[in-house]
Amino acid sequence: MGSSELPFPPGDYDVVVVGSGPGGLQTAYFLERLSVPHAVLSADDAPGGMFRKWPIFQRLLSWSKPEAPFGRDTREYEWYDHNSLLAEESGLRGLVPEFMDRSWAVPSRVEMEQGLAAFADRAGVAVRYGCRWQSTRREEDGRLVLGTTDGEYRCRAAVFALGVTEPWRSPIPGIEEVPHYAETGEPASYAGKSVVVIGKRNSGFEIADGLLPWARKITLVSPRPAETSVIALASIRVRYLQPLEDRALGGGTYVLDAAIERIERTSTGFLVVANGTTHQAGYELDCDAALAATGFTTPLGDLGGLGVRTVAQGRIPALTPHFEAAGAPGVFFAGNATQGAAGLRKRGVGASSPAVHGFRYNAKVLAEHLAERLGVRDRPRRPLAREEVVPFLAGELARAPELWAQKGYLCRVVGLDGPSDDGIQPLEHFVDASGGDAVAVAVEMDAGGTIYPGVYVRQEGRIREVELEPHPLNEFDREPYRRELATLVGEP
Ligand SMILES: Cc1cc2nc3c(=O)[nH]c(=O)nc-3n(C[C@H](O)[C@H](O)[C@H](O)COP(=O)(O)OP(=O)(O)OC[C@H]3O[C@@H](n4cnc5c(N)ncnc54)[C@H](O)[C@@H]3O)c2cc1C
Fold it and tell me: Is 458 in contact with 398 (CB distance < 8 Å)?
């Protein structure tokens, strides 16, 4: 295709989206449905983002159940399918399971890539591929200018869906010599070797799991203990508890809590020198191979110069509840980077924003916010009859995939002067914002995994927060929940 035939030539747009991973595709889809004029650019040649190459062992962490109590074309099915992108048209929903060979309830990398490509194709998400964003500046009128390999794009708001996939290494002397997760070799090249994996988060466990059939000995090292109680409740457990089981069985896997002092090259591999954290001891780990599973960072380019601040040791942009960079108005983020909007973290439980099943909902919230902010259209408010309010809120608590995926983070808001369904919004925004009388409901979870409904009532500008009791079957749409909701919203 010649550059004159590519979509979105350089020029002026209301919004420019950068990235064609799931975050960029989902944001572009909703901007299009909301009629927000926009352009989408990507350095890649095809849709899929990170899933065009990773996870490195070719199996996702997140599940999709091809068979579920609800049809794939329904909203309720989203909860059973954590990988497909969202769509309003029933024929575009639940596309990833269509490509799964069902040997696992977790898609392979290729199946995920195919599902994302099918979404981009069937939903008609246009992207200017092969176009790399290189620089950013702000004009005097406040507009942003994105310099790219194809020319300059001016916009009122930019959405960076850049992913969090640039290799990042902890500041350990000697670690620069150690290959990163991104440079993991063919599994067979580790046959019979002793391997030290630096890092005990998802990517560390993925490597350990992938190398179990090959390596002679695997030692995972990092200062903090793996939070097995958290892993056990998360979808990542699907493949990642096997190394822990191997350790428990004495199969040659070791999981050390230790701070690494330095790493030295040896004639046959590496020497990792570390000091125990939970067990006071010094370790000298002589190994044939080492891999740095120390994490990833967002490729922020020159955005720091515009005022974008960061959290998590500079790896993630610091964001407002509507995913705007704190310190850089008009600079928004989508996809994995929306984890920079941490939310309330009540009881210490974080959002699911680093994974597709969480950030796909953030993308809808972001697109609706941009449409309102740029004056394209007001937030849709669906009128409700007064007697509908309680059954609607109770049904959302029991089944809304947005609330179940983004526990304690996104909420369903109903305006009480009307009344009206005011849609899904960030909970942090609801509790901080002023406005008319309204009620918001969220599905919440404590650190022990107990799930319960949270109700937030705003009356005369004051917020009252009420936690309802958990239910063993999560039947929040029945009595006594309806009765309690009715009392809270002031119904007789
Ligand atoms: C090892 C690993 C395994 C993971 N496994 C899962 C999983 O199983 N399930 C899950 O839900 N999540 C998983 N994640 C999280 C995962 O990163 C996201 O779900 C998903 O890839 C994020 O989508 P994204 O759109 O934010 O970014 P990405 O998919 O990373 O896409 C980023 C896009 O930005 C583009 N881009 C970057 N810089 C530029 C530039 N300068 N100019 C133009 N374009 C640019 C890239 O070309 C790409 O198209 C995993 C992450 C890692 C690191």
Answer: no
Ligand 1: does its nearest atom lie under 6 Å from the Cβ of 161?
A: yes
Of 279, 294, 309, which residue sits at a domain end? 294
Convert the pLDDT of each residue in 184-211 to its tens digit: 999 999 999 999 999 998 899 999 999 9
Asked whether 25 lines ligand 1 (CB < 6 A), one says: no
Domain assignment present for residue 200? The answer is yes
Same domain, 207 and 318: no
Question: Alpha-carbon distance 99 to 106, whole Å?
Answer: 12
- CA triple 175-180-184, angle to 5 deg: 135
Mutation pick for ligand 1 pocket among 53, 162, 406 (CB with most ligand atoms within 8 Å): 162
Q: Which domain holds residue 34?
A: 7-165+297-373
- The tens digit of pLDDT for each residue in 112-144 reads 999 999 999 999 999 999 999 999 999 999 999
Q: Is residue 379 part of a domain?
A: no
> Is this model's pTM higher than 0.90 or not?
yes
Pocket of ligand 1 contains residue 28 by CB under 6 Å: no
Which CATH number goes with the domain that contains 268? Answer: 3.50.50.60
Half-sphere exposure of 260 (CA within 13 A, CB side): 27
Same domain, residue pair 205 and 281: yes
Q: What distance in angstroms lies between residue 53's CA and the mean position of ligand 1's atoms?
A: 10
The count of other CB atoms within 10 Å of the CB of residue 63 is 16
55 lines ligand 1 (CB under 6 A): yes
Q: In total, how many domains does the chain have?
A: 3
* Nearest Cα residue to atom 2 of ligand 1: 55
Query: Considering 269, 294, 319, which residue would you say is the last residue of a domain?
Result: 294
| Ligand 1 atom at shortest distance from the alpha carbon of 301 | 41
Whether residue 355 has its Cβ less than 6 Å from ligand 1 = yes
Alpha helix positions (H), 254-381? 356-373
